[in-house]
């Protein structure tokens, strides 16, 4: 079997999201058959490691070559326009921002569970807490686990397999309320240049709530794969979410979808499901703006206790954990769509 035979077989593998075959979409970077040692190496343009849909593409590629009597070696990389020197975060494949139009809707909770959930799938993950008004990451690590520095680089502490960094670690006692764009820019630059993230598949950024200077500076400084917008089903939170959407729209940032938090309450006493903040708002918002709906997370006391001291609830079993797992998978799948669409250029 030669390279063109391999490509012919790969032309039967469909991309479940982009709706075409991977060869026509330009998602096969390279094929190399080594008859002597009986291997075929296929490099695929896949950009969202451990996302279910990209894992399925890889499985289909293996299946398509299963009877070829060759060992199949797969690798995945999205060809970069910029050299490593020119890239802002060269070791980081995907930066995913978690945003909300208003405070208290559970944005940080979603960010933490997203990071822990991606790590549980097998990905290499970092979580950067840029929420200067309500930093959550410092609470996740003990005092002894604060980041270490040799004066030049900062080594982020790790929990649940996630590398953690917080604006709070870098700024100390400074009052964030007086922060303005230039200072945020300086700190973000420091984050980029001085923190030893190593190689990451995903860096989750927990943005401050709202649509102010800090959020804009981050959008302008970092190459985001896309943003997740968190809302509750209430109208007021939804109105604010629309403002968030506009901000991302103005900056040509991809929105990976809308997550609806506090979507109903399963009563532990009566077993009934109560829609305390209404229902369907997040789904409606997504539909109105032609955006993916990432899933709903119920109001559950375990979310708060998990956030305060224990493990993120996504790492446990049960209804709420499952709803977070669905959200994690949808975010990863949609990040993959953004990356692969970039390669296929709308082919
Ligand atoms: N689905 C949920 N069920 C129960 N409690 C929740 C849920 N989501 C969030 N909480 C709790 O609500 C509070 C606010 O959540 P969180 O800090 O994630 O919100 P936020 O949008 O990031 O707020 P901030 O404005 O501070 O950035 C926290 O105590 C959190 O544990």
UniProtKB/TrEMBL annotation:
<feature type="domain" description="MIP18 family-like">
    <location>
        <begin position="4"/>
        <end position="69"/>
    </location>
</feature>
<comment type="function">
    <text>Binds and transfers iron-sulfur (Fe-S) clusters to target apoproteins. Can hydrolyze ATP.</text>
</comment>
<protein>
    <recommendedName>
        <fullName>Iron-sulfur cluster carrier protein</fullName>
    </recommendedName>
</protein>
<keyword id="KW-0411">Iron-sulfur</keyword>
<keyword id="KW-0547">Nucleotide-binding</keyword>
<dbReference type="GO" id="GO:0005524">
    <property type="term" value="F:ATP binding"/>
</dbReference>
<dbReference type="InterPro" id="IPR000808">
    <property type="entry name" value="Mrp-like_CS"/>
</dbReference>
<keyword id="KW-0408">Iron</keyword>
<keyword id="KW-0067">ATP-binding</keyword>
<dbReference type="GO" id="GO:0016887">
    <property type="term" value="F:ATP hydrolysis activity"/>
</dbReference>
<dbReference type="GO" id="GO:0046872">
    <property type="term" value="F:metal ion binding"/>
</dbReference>
<dbReference type="Pfam" id="PF10609">
    <property type="entry name" value="ParA"/>
</dbReference>
<dbReference type="InterPro" id="IPR019591">
    <property type="entry name" value="Mrp/NBP35_ATP-bd"/>
</dbReference>
<dbReference type="InterPro" id="IPR044304">
    <property type="entry name" value="NUBPL-like"/>
</dbReference>
<keyword id="KW-0378">Hydrolase</keyword>
<dbReference type="InterPro" id="IPR033756">
    <property type="entry name" value="YlxH/NBP35"/>
</dbReference>
<dbReference type="InterPro" id="IPR027417">
    <property type="entry name" value="P-loop_NTPase"/>
</dbReference>
<comment type="similarity">
    <text>Belongs to the Mrp/NBP35 ATP-binding proteins family.</text>
</comment>
<feature type="binding site">
    <location>
        <begin position="101"/>
        <end position="108"/>
    </location>
    <ligand>
        <name>ATP</name>
    </ligand>
</feature>
<keyword id="KW-0479">Metal-binding</keyword>
<dbReference type="Pfam" id="PF01883">
    <property type="entry name" value="FeS_assembly_P"/>
</dbReference>
<comment type="subunit">
    <text>Homodimer.</text>
</comment>
<dbReference type="InterPro" id="IPR002744">
    <property type="entry name" value="MIP18-like"/>
</dbReference>
<dbReference type="GO" id="GO:0051536">
    <property type="term" value="F:iron-sulfur cluster binding"/>
</dbReference>
<dbReference type="InterPro" id="IPR034904">
    <property type="entry name" value="FSCA_dom_sf"/>
</dbReference>
């Amino acid at each position: 079997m030669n390279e063109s035979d391999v490509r012919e077989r790969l032309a039967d593998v469909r991309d479940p999201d982009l709706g075409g075959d991977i060869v026509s979409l330009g998602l096969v970077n390279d094929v190399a058959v080594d008859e002597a040692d009986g291997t075929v190496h296929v490099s695929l343009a896949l950009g969202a490691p451990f996302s279910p849909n990209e894992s399925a593409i890889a499985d289909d590629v293996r299946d398509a070559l299963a009877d070829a009597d060759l060992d199949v070696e797969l690798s995945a990389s999205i060809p970069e326009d910029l050299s490593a020197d020119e890239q802002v975060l060269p070791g980081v494949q995907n930066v995913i921002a978690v945003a909300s139009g208003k405070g208290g809707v559970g944005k940080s909770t979603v960010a933490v569970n997203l990071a822990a959930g991606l790590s549980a799938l097998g990905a290499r993950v970092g979580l950067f807490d840029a929420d200067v008004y309500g930093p959550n990451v410092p609470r996740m690590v003990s005092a002894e686990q604060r980041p270490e520095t040799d004066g030049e680089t900062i080594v982020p502490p790790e929990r649940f397999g996630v590398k953690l960094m917080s604006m709070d670690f870098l700024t100390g006692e400074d009052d964030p309320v007086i922060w303005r764009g230039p200072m945020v820019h300086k700190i973000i630059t420091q984050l980029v240049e001085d923190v030893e993230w190593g190689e990451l598949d995903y860096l989750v950024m927990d943005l401050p709530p709202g649509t102010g200077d800090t959020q804009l500076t981050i959008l302008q400084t970092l190459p985001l794969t896309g943003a997740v917008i968190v809302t509750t089903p209430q109208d007021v939170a939804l109105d604010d979410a629309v403002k968030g959407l506009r901000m991302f729209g103005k900056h040509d940032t991809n929105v990976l979808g809308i997550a609806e938090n506090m979507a109903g309450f399963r009563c532990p006493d009566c077993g009934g499901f109560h829609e305390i903040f209404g229902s369907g708002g997040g789904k409606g918002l997504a539909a109105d703006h032609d955006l993916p709906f990432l899933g709903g997370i119920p109001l559950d006391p375990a979310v708060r206790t998990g956030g305060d001291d224990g493990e993120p609830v996504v790492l446990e079993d049960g209804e709420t954990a499952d709803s977070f797992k669905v959200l994690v998978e949808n975010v990863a799948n949609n990040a993959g769509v953004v990356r692969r669409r970039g390669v296929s250029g709308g082919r």
